[in-house]
């Protein structure tokens, strides 16, 4: 028995081929079903647009942060300009005027250094040392008031005596 091989009934063979075909079809169908992890999800939510009213940090809005920063920068610039005397003249006339002003200030400072002390200034240069030649206003007023009070006393005493006497002022 050369052909001693077991013989399969044709129904069994059909079922085997059917099972193979069915598994092939199912595998091709299942391969088309996407994996839930790989399925596209909703796109990420876009952040809110940045406006001047957007709270940046510490509860401050964007315009407040920009304002504080600008004031700080302005204060630094002003401080540096005051410390280093950053002055930028605009025209040639202003440059020349400032140069002339500096020269006049230097000349004035030099003349102040040559001014004698106050006690030396009370004497008038080129005059004699006669102290009575120069009188102050208060020195002139005091003798006049003394002379006028003496004159009124003298006039009262020179008048002829009468029944009515004038009260003395004093």
Tally of DSSP helical segments = 5
**Gap from first CA to last CA:** 180 Å
The secondary-structure class comes to mainly alpha
Largest sheet: 2 strands, antiparallel
The outline comes out as rod-shaped
Mean pLDDT: 75
* Helical content class: 55-70%
Approximate strand percentage: under 5%
Sequence of strands across the biggest β-sheet: 1-2
> Over all CA atoms, what is the radius of gyration?
59 Å
In sequence order, what are the helices and strands, one letter per element?
Answer: HEEHHHH
- What low-confidence regions span 5 or more consecutive residues with pLDDT below 50? 153-159
Written description of the protein model:
Keywords: Membrane, Transmembrane, Transmembrane helix. It holds the Pfam family TMIE. InterPro entries: TMIE. Residues 151-170 have a biased composition (Low complexity). Residues 125-150 have a biased composition (Polar residues). This protein has helices spanning 10-32, 62-84, 92-113, 118-121, 137-158, and strands at 55-57, 60-61. The protein is mostly helical. A two-stranded antiparallel ribbon has the order 1-2. It is built from five helices and two strands. The N and C termini lie far apart (180 Å). The model is unreliable at 153-159 (pLDDT under 50). The chain is rod-shaped and about 175 Å long. It has a domain at 62-112.
Write the layout of secondary structure elements.
Blueprint: H1 10-32, E1 55-57, E2 60-61, H2 62-84, H3 92-113, H4 118-121, H5 137-158
Antiparallel strand pairs: 1-2
Summarize the structure.
The chain has 170 residues and is mostly helical. The chain contains five helices and two strands, in the order αββαααα. Helices cover 55% and strands 3% of the residues.
């Amino acid at each position: 028995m050369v052909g001693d091989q077991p013989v399969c009934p044709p129904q069994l063979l059909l079922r085997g081929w059917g099972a193979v075909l069915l598994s092939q079809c199912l595998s091709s169908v299942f391969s088309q079903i996407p994996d839930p992890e790989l399925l596209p999800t909703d796109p990420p939510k876009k952040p809110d647009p940045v406006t001047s009213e957007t709270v940046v940090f510490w509860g401050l809005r964007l315009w407040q942060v920009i304002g504080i920063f600008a004031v700080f920068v302005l204060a630094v610039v002003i401080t540096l300009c005051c410390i280093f005397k950053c002055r930028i003249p605009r025209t040639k006339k202003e440059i020349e005027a400032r140069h002339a002003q500096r020269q006049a200030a230097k000349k004035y400072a030099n003349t102040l250094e040559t001014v004698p002390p106050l006690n030396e200034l009370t004497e008038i240069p080129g005059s004699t040392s006669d102290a009575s030649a120069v009188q102050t206003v208060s020195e002139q007023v005091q003798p006049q008031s003394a002379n006028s009070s003496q004159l009124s006393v003298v006039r009262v005493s020179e008048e002829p005596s009468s029944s009515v006497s004038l009260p003395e002022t004093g």
